[in-house]
Amino acid sequence: MEYRRIKDQEKDGDSVSDDVESLRGNPHSGSPKSIVGGSGVRTKWKLKSVVTLTLTVLTSSQAILIVWSKRAGKYEYSVTTANFLVEALKCALSLAALARIWRKDGVTEDNRLNTTWDEVNVYPIPAALYLIKNLLQYYIFAYVDAPGYQILKNFNIISTGVLYRIILKRKLSEIQWAAFVLLCAGCTTAQLNSNSDKVLQTPLQGWVMAIIMALLSGFAGVYTEAIIKKRPSRNINVQNFWLYVFGMIFNAIAILVQDFDAVMNKGFFHGYSLITVLMILNHALSGIAVSMVMKYADNIVKVYSTSVAMLLTAVVSVFLFGFHLSLAFFLGSTIVSVSVYLHSIGKLR
Question: Burial of 327 by CB count in 10 Å (0-12 exposed, 13-18 middle, 19+ buried)?
Answer without folding.
Answer: exposed
